[in-house]
Amino acid sequence: MIEPLWEVFIRSRRGLSHVHVGSLHAPDATMALRNARDVYTRRQEGVSIWVVPATDITASSPDEKDEFFDPAGDKVYRHPTFYQVPEGVDHL
Amino acid sequence: MLAGMDSFQATIEADGRIEPRDAMPEGYRKTLIRQIAQHAHSEIIGMQPEGNWISRAPSLRRKAILMAKVQDEAGHGLYLYAAAETLGVDRADLLDLLHSGKQKYSSIFNYPTLTWADIGAIGWLVDGAAIVNQVPLCRCSYGPYARAMVRVCKEESFHQRQGFEILHTLCNGTEAQKAMAQDALNRWWWPSLMMFGPPDASSTHSEQSMAWGIKRHSNDELRQRFVDMTVPQADVLGIRVPDEGLTCDEETGHYSFTEPDFTELYEVVKGNGPCNQQRLAHRVKAHEDGAWVREAAAAYAEKQAAKAQGSAA
Ligand SMILES: [Fe+2]
Ligand SMILES: [Fe+2]
User: What is the rounded average pLDDT of the residues B150-179?
Assistant: First the structure.
C-alpha cells in the first residue's frame, strides 16, 4: 500500500501568497494537513497551509519550454523600460 | 535552442539548477538518488543514539530540547525522502533498501552513546560536521536537494549550539563532569573526522560529482574546515582534542592534524561497527510495529472517501 503524494504550499505570513515547500505522503487530506504542519511548520513558518494531491497538478512540459514561452520573448514593449520619456516629465 | 542533454550540460556550465522533469544523464539521476537516499537514511537512523537519552535527560529543559532536536532529524529525513522522490523513486522502496542493507547510512550513527556527555558531543561534533558538509549542498545543482538543504541548515545551528551548551555546562561543573566531557570528545573526535569520507586520493565518486555540481568541495577540504572551526571551540571548553600531532600554522591559521584511521571507517561501513546490527534491527522493528497505524489510516481514508461518494451520488 503506497499512500498518495501531496504537494505542500505555505503562506508564511498574512499578505504573502502560498509558496511550494515540498511534498509528503498521507492517506487523506486531513492527515496530509496535519503532517504538513509537523514537517514544514515546526518553527512557525506558516499561517496557512494548502495540500494538493500531486496527481491533480497539470504542469507545462520542460521539453517544450522554449516554444511554450516564446510568444512573450519578442514583446519588449510590454515593459515600461521600452519607452523613452522626455526630459522633465515626472510621475510617468 | 538547446534540448535534452545539451540543455542539461549548458545549465550545469552556467551554474544553473536542474529541476525534476528536466532531461538528465542516467548517471546523474542515479548518483543523486543514492546520495539523497543515504542522506535521508542517516537522518532517521541518527534519531536512535540520541533518542536513547530522552528519558534520561538531566532536566526538563534538556529533555524538551532533545525531543525537539530528534523530531527535527525526523523532519530532515522527510524533506530528503521527498527530494529523492522527485527523481522517480518511491520512499517505500528506499526504506526497503535501507532495511535490507542494500543502501547505507552515515557510519557515525553506529557508535554508542554511553554517557550524557555523548549527547553534547553529538550536537557539537556530529551536527557540526554535518553543517560543514551540508552548507555547500545548498548550492547543489539539483534544485529539490538544494532547497531541502537550505531548510535543513537553518535548523542545524540550534542542534550544534545545544550540544556545545551541554558540554560547556559539564566543563564548568565538577571534576567528574569535566572528565565525562573529555571522554566523550576522545571517543567522538575520530569518527567525526571520518564523516567527511575517505581521503581525496581514494574517494571514488568525487570527481564526477564535482563536474555535475553535486559536490562543491573535496572531502579533505571539508575535513580541514571542520578541524579549523572546532579546535578553538574545544579550547573554550577547556578540553583537549585527542590528537598528539595537532599543531596550528600561525601563518595560514590552519591546523595540521593526524588523519583518522580509515580502516576503521571501512570496517564500520561493511557492518562491523559497534552498533550496526542494533540500529538496523531497531529501525526494521519500528517500521513493522507501525504497520497497523498506516493500515488503520488507509482504511479510515477509504471509508471517508466512500462516504463522500455515497452522499454525492
Ligand atoms: Fe539533520
Ligand atoms: Fe541535526
Answer: 97
d(CA A37, CA B48): 23
Q: Residue B230: how many CA atoms within 13 Å on its side-chain side?
A: 35
**Residue A22 falls within a domain, yes or no?**
yes
Phi-psi map region of A15: left, alpha, beta (phi>0 left; psi -120 to 50 alpha): left
A43: in domain: yes
Q: How many domains, chain A?
A: 1
Which CATH number goes with the domain that contains A29?
3.10.20.520
Indicate the pLDDT class of residue A1, thresholds 50, 70 and 90.
low
Nearest to B156 by CA among B181, B141, B138, B172: B138
Question: What range does the domain containing A11 cover?
Answer: 5-59
A29 lies in a domain? Answer: yes
A15 touches chain B (CB under 8 A): no
CA–CA distance, B117 with B119 (Å, rounded to integer): 5
The answer to whether A62 contacts B23, with C-beta atoms less than 8 Å apart, is: yes
The answer for residues whose C-beta is within 8 angstroms of residue A8's C-beta and 6 or more apart is: A20, A21, A22, A23, A24, A32, A36, A39, A40, A49, A50, A51
What phi and psi, each to the nearest 5 degrees, are found at residue B252?
A: -85, -20
Phi, psi of A9 (to 5 degrees): -125, 135
Amino acid present at B204: T
Which of B220, B194, B218 lies closest to B208 in space, CA to CA?
Answer: B218
pLDDT of residue B282 exceeding 70, the answer is yes
Which chain B residue shows the shortest CA-CA distance from A24? B82
Starting at the earlier edge strand, list the strands of the sheet with A19-25.
A19-25, A5-11, A48-53
A43 shares contact with chain B (CB less than 8 Å):
yes
Interface touch A27/B82, C-beta < 8 Å = no
Half-sphere exposure of B223 (CA within 13 A, CB side): 20
Chain A CB within 8 Å of residue B6 CB: no
pTM of the model: 0.94
Domain assignment present for A71: no
In terms of average pLDDT, the best of A69-73, A84-88, B62-66 is B62-66
Contact between B213 and B28 under an 8 Å Cβ cutoff? The reply is no
Question: Which residue from B68, B90, B300 is facing A2, i.e. has the nearest CB?
Answer: B90
Pair B81, B40: CB distance under 8 Å: yes
C-alpha cell at A10: 505555505
